[in-house]
Amino acid sequence: MSVGKITIISGPMFSGKTEELIRLVRRSVYAGKKCIVFKPKIDNRYDKEKVCSHNGSILECIIVDKAMGIIDYLEKHAGIDVVGIDEIQFFDDQIEYVVREIARRGYGVIGAGLDKDFRGEPFGRMANLLCVAEETPKLAAVCHKCGEDAYFTQRIVNGKPASYNDEIVKVGAAESYEARCREHHEVPDHLGFQKE
Ligand code: ADP
Ligand code: MG
Fold first, then answer.
1. Ligand 1 site, CB within 6 A
2. How far is 45 from 100, CA to CA, in rounded Å?
3. Which mutation among 23, 53, 59, 143 tests ligand 1's pocket best, with the greatest number of atoms within 8 A of CB?
4. What is the pLDDT of residue 150?
């Protein structure tokens, strides 16, 4: 049995996390490894059973509604070497245990997800996942405002920066996201937020 390893790719939206996940999975396939990719049920932006990047790369994947579903699947399907997990920040809190446990069982784990939410705070279990991983490539997008490296995700609701207190899902609101640098990342109503 091989020694497991955890890689967590993180960064804001549009930073190329999914592209990098697809690249690393394809690389493992070239190395003769059997790979499988999972994603949580919540992400239905594009195709249901495919991992899609913003630039059009596509990989087949298995949708699971709970983190423990990954272990259940692996226990029923022998011969897998590498487990990819996209949008890993959306999984329930068990994901930290699941990732550590499958690495302990000898699998390679390649996760990709947002390190921070739109408020700029750690997303779900991501801070812990980044802590327990052996490798943590952190990617930058391009700031929508100035072209600098962007490490933040700007949430925009009805044309304005989303408030710190905005609920995560706003019914009936037109919302969108942009990659922003620290300077241009705006979170109104954040304790201590002052924008001149
Ligand atoms: P992520 O999974 O991090 O959201 P993807 O891998 O899906 O990112 O997409 C990355 C691609 O998005 C880039 O290669 C580029 O083609 C495109 N893109 C769109 N907006 C931006 C931006 N502001 N900065 C960088 N890339 C962008
Ligand atoms: Mg992605």
1. 11, 13-19, 53-55, 141-142, 144, 179
2. 28
3. 53
4. 98
Residue in the block written with tokens 């699971």: 64
pLDDT value at 47 more than 70: no
| Residue predicted with more confidence, 45 or 119 | 119
Which atom of ligand 1 is the closest one to the Cα of 142? 24
Range 130-133 contact pairs with CB under 8 angstroms and sequence separation of 24 or more: 130/8, 130/10, 132/6, 132/96, 132/99, 132/100, 133/6, 133/7, 133/8
| 57-90 tens-digit pLDDT | 788 899 999 999 999 999 999 999 999 999 999 9
Give the active site residue among 20, 87, 178, 186.
87
Residues 6+ apart with CB under 8 A from 77: 36
Amino acid 44: pLDDT: 55
87 is catalytic: yes
